[in-house]
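Appendix B. Extra example for self-study. Work through it before the problem class; the solution is given directly after the inputs so you can check yourself.
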Amino acid sequence: MAVNGVSSDSSPFPVEHALLYELLVSELTDFVVVLLDPGGRFASWNPGVQKNLGYTAEEVIGQPSSILFTARDREAGIPEQEMQTARENGRATDIRWHLRRDGSLMFGEGVMVALRAPDGSLLGFSKVMRDVTARKQNEDRLEELTEALRQAQIIVRSPDGVIRFWGDGARRLYGFSEAEALGSTSWELLKTESPLTPEDLRRILATERTWHGEVRNCRRDGSRVIVRIDAVLRQVPSTGEQVIIEAATDISELKRAEESLLRSNEDLQHFVYAASHDLQEPLRMIRTYSELLSRRYGSKFDPDADLFVRRISEGANRMETLLRELLAWSQSSDGSEVPRQQVDMNEVLSAALSVLQHRVEETGATITSDRLPVVLGHAHSLAQVLQNLLLNGIKYGGDDPPRIHVSVRLEGEGFWQFSVHDNGVGFDPGDAEKIFRAFTRLHGAERQGTGIGLALCRKIVERHRGRIWAQSEPGRGSTFHFTLPAGSQ
Ligand code: ADP
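Solution. Structure tokens for the complete assembly:
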């Protein structure tokens, strides 16, 4: 008879024992239970072989047990060594990777026992094994995580500050060894300067569970380090005690770079302000004296001299515009908060239009608008934005008279998106970003400008926490979009 593929004839046991054995092992589907003949070939099979290794009885019986070993183990003679150990010591335990039928790996934990007849002669081997791949993977993962934790700049401490875990990352960052750190109070060890007192932090963590912020800590050598802290409050499952896990990121370099950028920005702004302000005086002299010249001596000028003096005046006027815009630009970024008032954008548009009235009439431009909403901001600077965008729509017009439309739509998260669309010459989409840089001009001297208008618009919009960008194609008009925080209607 044959149960589960075991032929009674080939079994080394008396028939009735073999039957009992087969019934037993057929139930053990989570275990691989097999008999090997003295030469190490499979003499039996149980459903666990199929479930764990993928082999049917026909495929496995008569095959050498080495088919379950990885090529490396086979080359190293592990199958023979295992039988040798079982022969000599009665049993051999193993825990290693095994090969499934489909070539995948199974981490198995097993024991092989040498089976002997009463006279001591070797009948074969029994082998019982179980799949512990998941456990192995969990262990490996845990090991990786523990290592990552050790390497990360992580401190675990109790709510009263006593350091419980101090990995290599923390040692590298602060210079204190594990022995020095464990058991000491973190803010005493690191002389922490934080916007929060330890009690404040405890209170926040008790309600919020997390806290993110910047603190200044002291290294072992006394140097200061600015770190960003991400702290979470957790309960240790086994003991129920609460711990604070703090991950620290060294942002000292970033802070230094930020501060120096801020300083050089301030210097630059100061320089631009001083230069544009101080240049106004000599400019006024040029204008005054060229006017005086033409008034007093104009009648005596020949046509050339007349033209030259006129050119001096025009140059001076142009320079005055440039200095005025430069001043506006440098002052627009003095870092102060924009006063947040309710501003009706219809009124802002009217103000901008009245400044542009002359240009509109001169060019026959048509300017239309949706009904505009109320925003939060500063009316005068917002009028400057609309004025610049509308003036550009006129200045960079094509062959037809300029047609400009101001539209608006609600953007998510409490912002309005305004769009100023014109029918002008347009520009290459690849230039859409760079035209917002100061002094960047795409169109030549035939269209007057300083290249500051859009840079000023960007500063104003960003100070309102909005964004500004442009879309265009040569010959197909341009659209300038900007967003502003919505006010109450
Ligand atoms: P300016 O107009 O004084 O040159 P801006 O900063 O306002 O300075 O604009 C920068 C450049 O962007 C302009 O010189 C022009 O080449 C391009 N530009 C701006 N607005 C438009 C527009 N509506 N259509 C086409 N080009 C534009």
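Self-check: The radius of gyration is 42 Å. If your reasoning did not lead you there, revisit section 3.
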